[in-house]
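Q: Here's a chain of 437 amino acids. Please give me its 3D structure as tokens.
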Amino acid sequence: METRNPGQYHELSDLNSATWAATTSALFQDGKVANQIVKLAPPEEDAEADGKKSTKLGTMSGVFIPVCEAILGAPIFVLIPTVVGQGGCGVALTIAGLCCLSTFFSVLSMSAVATNGRIKSGGSYYMISRYLGPEFGGAVGILFSTAQAVATSMEVLGFVEVFQEIFPNARLTQNFDMQIFGAILTLILFGIVFAGMKLISKVGHFFLVCLVTTLLAMYLGIFIGDAEEGYKLSSNNLSANWEPHYDTGFDFNVLMGNFFPAVTGIMSGANRSRELKDPQRNIPAGSVAANVTTSCIYLISIVLFATVAPASMLKSDSILIINHGWPHPLVTQIGVLFCTLGSGIQFLAGAPRILQAVAIDGTMPFLKWFAPGVEPRRALLPIFILAMSCIMTGNLNIVAPVISMFFLITYSFVNIACFILSIVNSPNWRPRFKYFH
């Protein structure tokens, strides 16, 4: 490409508009400049073969509900009682506080980046790739879509585990029920997500009702209690449960690794940025509200669990809280299963949208086949295969640590992007959301 000195650019002001357009075109027709502009071009909303447009969602249905459903799955009912029983209330509050703070700061960074310009498809991938470069963005996008797929398998395995605890006689084989039930359930979730965002939003409202109903039944069961079984609020329980009661194989680090997946899902709203009416307004409002709401629910639940039963009961019975719902245990038992399904759908719906955004940008040419469509149905196929592969392990403890690492990497890059843009005083860094760290 021809080398130009600064004086030549000032001469452009004296040219007529036609000459200026021709000169500008010549600047970018050849060489790396044109390639980089094409490479970084924001993904456009491709029309589907049938010409239908994607459903536009607001703050509540597009961000707040998906984030709450993604975070409040099986862990609050099954995992937290175990964490409280093993680590005690003090350790559990410390772990929950650290995890919730890390996601809260990530939400603030994400909100700042999201309000610094127009956000299209890809959510977190779009933000990182536009500010740290397509190479970083592409790598993080693949990691994050993989994390979402693995998180889907975690929720499915959690569903099957709770289902088998509630209905111990519902068995098909001696050793492979987890895989069989998990595969069937994943196929059902695949069908819902494949149908499109309109159906996902409709079932999302249903799962939200199930979530609220289950939480209310759980809390009422705690306050009403069952004195005959020793399941009642008592300051003596809280005092005894404040210190750790670790069994072999458990310590602070193990509990932290097991708990962190419970707070992931904060980007479930941002991941569907393409379907939002006003992403710059919807993402900060919905994400911050959902993060604060779910964090409060976790912290309150930890204190209540430590107060309602001794550590021995919390450790020995993983569904202790579920079996004491009011007015009947079936309310919480069935409700937990639906909550887990709702969380799984949100993860499975977000993963292909990130993968499609990476494919549209062209940073990885071998992903080009996954780019077409308003609904990322092609991108859903590898996500489905990956989730099914994780389910074939049949072990929730294998899946959970993998999720923690992938989500932590993604959150760290969002925070790094916000930090770099702030500290270098970039002229194009003018976020409307001012409350970032």
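Q: Can you summarize the key feature?
A: Confidence is low (pLDDT under 50) at residues 6-52.
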